[in-house]
Design goal:
Layout (H helix, E strand, L loop, with lengths): L2 E4 L13 E9 L2 E12 L7 E9 L1 H6 L3 E8 L5 E10 L2 E9 L5 E8 L4 E9 L7 H10 L6 E8 L4 E16 L2 E10 L12 E7 L6 E7 L7 E5 L4 E2 L2
Parallel strand pairs: 1-10
Antiparallel strand pairs: 2-3, 2-15, 2-16, 3-4, 4-5, 5-6, 6-7, 7-8, 8-9, 10-11, 11-12, 12-13, 13-14, 14-15
Length: 243
């Protein structure tokens, strides 16, 4: 039986989401298509408490087809409530700076997208959000500290600044997976962010967390239609602790 729990504010303190750096190898159509680095670290001053960075670069043939060098950074507190994020997009000739501020004013998220090539703002938006809302990385950090075992699911408040939703995350099954960094016993989760939940794209998002106290995200997969293909990120080396 699938048990559904709705999660909001009042989350447990961060423990599994300790400061660390994770390196991933991206595969697309059976080739090494790129590399990603995910970093969680403590913020100086302590409030908001955390900053997460994600860097993604294509390489080789994939970079020749579609060059990507994207950098994303979000700040959130010990309750995983996002304060703001900045997103630098560099894809082919596209150059964008995206800034989202949550709870400024309270109950709102403000989105600004700036085209650095044309030197102009191309989109602004303000939407309603809950008092505590996660971006995707804060939601991942929160999932790591939740005791969510299969078969069960939770609904989390998420927003990318353009849209907000209660997104379901489903603990589906335990799996042993092989990655370049080794073999792991994991729990596979599916996060329902696509198909007009947070994004319009027809896709599915899966995350494999180690089935232990570390709860490391050792594999992430975006499964898209055949003509686009599936992208899989696998942990390529052992995690690095941030001091």
């Amino acid at each position: 039986m699938l048990v559904l729990v709705r999660g909001g504010a009042g989350s447990p303190p961060v423990d599994a989401a300790s400061p660390l750096v994770l390196h991933y190898r991206a595969e697309w159509r059976l080739m090494h298509a790129g590399d990603a680095t995910l970093r969680f670290e403590r913020e100086a001053g302590g409030n908001p408490a955390w900053r997460a960075h994600l860097e993604l670069k294509t390489r080789g043939f994939a970079a020749a087809l579609y060059k990507v060098d994207n950098r994303y950074s979000v700040v959130f507190d010990d309750g995983f409530c996002a304060a703001f994020y900045d997103y630098l997009v560099r894809e082919r000739g596209k150059r964008r700076e995206i800034r989202v501020r949550y709870q400024e004013p309270a109950g709102k998220a403000s989105y600004v997208e700036y085209d650095t090539v044309k030197d102009k703002v191309v989109e602004t938006r303000q939407i309603d959000v809950p008092a505590c809302v996660h971006d995707e990385l804060a939601a991942l950090a929160r999932l790591r500290v939740m005791n969510l075992s299969p078969p069960s699911s939770v609904e989390l408040p998420v927003s990318n600044g353009k849209k907000a939703a209660w997104a379901r995350v489903e603990a589906q099954r335990r799996e042993r997976i092989e990655t370049p960094s080794g073999a792991y016993e994991t729990i596979r989760y599916e996060a329902f962010l696509f198909k007009n939940v947070l994004y319009r794209r027809n896709a599915r998002l899966f995350v494999w967390l180690t089935d232990d106290e570390r709860r490391l995200p050792v594999q992430i997969r975006i499964q898209m239609p055949f003509f686009i293909g599936t992208v899989t990120l696998q942990l390529s080396s052992q995690p690095e602790e941030v001091t």
